[in-house]
Design goal:
This is Alcohol dehydrogenase catalytic domain-containing protein. By secondary structure, the protein is an alpha/beta fold. 28% of the residues lie in helices and 28% in strands.
Length: 328
């Protein structure tokens, strides 16, 4: 089959790869649409020691089952492969499974024509849904999970809360749209890329440039950091209100300074967020399908064969899209 393979730092190759061979309990899925995630970019930059080239990246995918219990079924992939037996899996928090794995990390991902994946990791797609929209389920579920945890930790309900989202990629953009859907009193989105700000504004969001507007009024009850850099963590802790909540999703810079004193003195709740549960995936798929999150016309669709150029455009900030979707 053809696949886009991460071969070295800032290098990919569209080439022939061996056909996936499903094991017992696995299905063979033909990929119809797959998104480029920030973690894929992180690997492409050579910053993720868990993703060792040569490797087929990609985990935000929709496709059709070719072999397995339900051939012909269109599905979204749950890329998290877990044991199903540990305390966390049994409690419904499988994203914390100690033995979890992820397609596109240690095993081949979805930047190929086909993939083998456990049948338990397949979620049926509603009839007639655009596969490119269905492929947004994974990043949407990441934002959904983060905001659900943040709302649980918040002192006041969302309807009384001012919210700031840092980062206008798919997780940030979807997070802001979810906050509006959930009834947050105010939602602002900080994004340094002018093209992405235009995209967010066109989606009906209050987007601004945090560099041109550095004196953003503080006092946000909830801050979603969808970037995860030293600068964005600093901005999050400086703009959140005393007693507020910071939901930290992004992983661009894992190390760096952290103002624990300010967080402590202001009783700020800092919530680390990792991926999602299957419940989050199913809820996100439904919200994407029924139009609650808008038209979703802010995606950029390209052939898988042109994926290498897509990585380069994203790296250079030339793409206005919050999400680039590759189509095999």
């Amino acid at each position: 089959m053809k696949a886009l393979v991460y071969t070295a730092t800032k290098q990919t190759e569209y080439r022939d790869e061996p056909e996936p061979q499903p094991e017992n309990g696995e299905a063979l899925v033909r990929i119809e649409a797959v998104g480029i995630c920030g973690s894929d970019m992180h690997a492409w930059h050579g910053h993720d020691p868990r993703r060792v080239p040569p490797l087929i990246l990609g985990h935000e995918a929709c496709g059709t089952v070719l072999e397995g219990s339900n051939p012909g079924t269109r599905v979204v992939l749950n890329p998290l492969i877990t044991c199903g037996l540990c305390r966390y899996c049994v409690e419904g928090r499988s994203n914390l499974c100690p033995s979890r794995d992820l397609i596109g990390m240690r095993r081949p991902g979805a930047f190929g024509e086909r993939i083998a994946i456990p049948e338990n990791n397949l979620i049926a797609v509603p009839d007639g849904m655009d596969p490119a929209h269905a492929a947004l389920t994974e990043p949407c579920a990441t934002a959904w999970h983060a905001l659900a945890l943040a709302a649980r930790a918040a002192w006041r309900p969302l309807a009384e809360s001012r919210a700031l989202v840092i980062g206008g990629g798919s997780v940030g953009l979807l997070g802001a749209l979810i906050l509006k859907t959930w009834g947050a009193a105010e939602v602002r989105l900080a994004e340094t890329n002018a093209l992405r700000r235009e995209t967010a504004t066109a989606a009906g969001l209050d987007a601004f440039d945090p560099i041109a507007e550095p004196a953003v009024p503080a006092g946000f009850d909830l801050v979603l950091d969808a970037v995860g850099m030293v600068a964005t963590r600093r901005a999050a802790t400086q703009t959140v209100a005393p007693g507020g909540v910071v939901a930290h999703v992004g992983l661009q810079e894992p190390a760096g300074d952290f103002d624990a004193r300010s967080v402590t003195l202001s009783e700020i709740t800092f919530v680390g967020v990792y991926t999602y549960t299957e419940t989050d995936l199913r809820a996100s798929l439904a919200a994407l399908q029924d139009g609650r999150l808008g038209s979703l016309n802010w995606i950029d669709q390209r052939p898988l064969a042109e994926g290498g150029r897509a990585f380069e455009d994203l790296d250079a900030g030339r793409s206005s899209a919050a999400k680039v979707i590759l189509r095999p």
